[in-house]
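User: Hey, quick favor. My workstation is busy. Could you predict this chain's structure for me?
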Amino acid sequence: MRDIVFTRASGWIPTVIRDDDGLKLMLGAGADANHEPRTFTFPVTEADLAVIQEDLPRHLLLWAAVLPLCEAAGTRGALDESAAVALLDPLLHGTSADVDALFRSIPWSRARLVAHGAHIGLLERGHVYEAMRTATETPNEKRAQEHHADRRRAARGVVLARLDAAILKYTGQYVHGSTIPGRKPDAVDPALLPAVMRVVGTAEQASAGMAIGRDPRRGKRATDKGDWARMESAVAAALRRTHPELADDAVRTVCFLMCSEAAARSRNAPVDTDEEHADSGGGGRKTALTFTDDRDAEQKWRHGGGSTAAAAFWEFVAERSRPNNDVFTIEDEAMGEGIQVHFYADSLARITTLREGRSGSEPEYAVEYRLVDGMSEYRTLVSAFARGGCAALDRHGPWFTDVDEFERARRRRRESR
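Assistant: No problem, here it is.
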């Protein structure tokens, strides 16, 4: 038989109950192995109950002190009841000095006190009892989260100015820096919003005309890291030049905002969209091509089928690219030419048939190699081939005909990075 003797409006603050063994303080904390909340109880007296009912600050202080004991119990352990009972006398009946001394000697939940209105300055100076004069029964979890974020930054030696803090709140990254940023003007003090928008305007101007494409080598929705790095660098340079007073955290969050928005714009667009509008510079636009990978998958493409050759090829790559499947080929069988991309080696080969095989003899090919610097160059080379064949790649050199010379160039590039 269990009866609730005293509870507060906020359901998580510990409740006093009466069961067959007498009065107990009951609180929920932690979780079991199935992620269900655990409930703990320990005995209290009638005198303890009287203080809990009349003195909200002491009730909250008791809660903050007991929570670490509950966490120590883990998913299946029992609450250290003796340690919990030992907290009652100094916290509920002791002087302010007794309370402060106890809190200097035990672990306690700072977040609970901050959420319930503790004066942060007094709390930081160790005046825990006095800090709770501003206590509220209704919690403000956002206040606790922001305080925790400030302490994490302080541990890194970072102190934010008002504008820095406003920028982080605008992007939604004040509390959690790893969340996807957005634009939240309502989260900013109206007096600071114009200054925030000037900073964002600088970033927008610096990234105007830049784009972050997809990288089909890493899947259908992966982002091109090279494009991201270029935009991030351009935005950061503009911000530091125009707004040198900004903290690194503020610069970083605005860069993240610009880059994530650009990546989102491209995520549902074709990988290659400019092929139909460019000059071929070669032997004429391709009308039929065959795509293959390193695992014998094959796909035919024909002009007029709804997507450009380059876009269709990159979709083919995105569907099949894996760490153990990173060589892809585009072949024009009618013209006897093709290209092969080697993602594992950051290179590309163009292959031209010099002589068809006859009477059992093997065909003869001319093979030339080129180093490739990132996804942007891969897109350029694939589009050029789709527009004009191997001849259109002449101006995209240098090309190596000697394999040993090519490998030396690869080694030099690898060593220089």
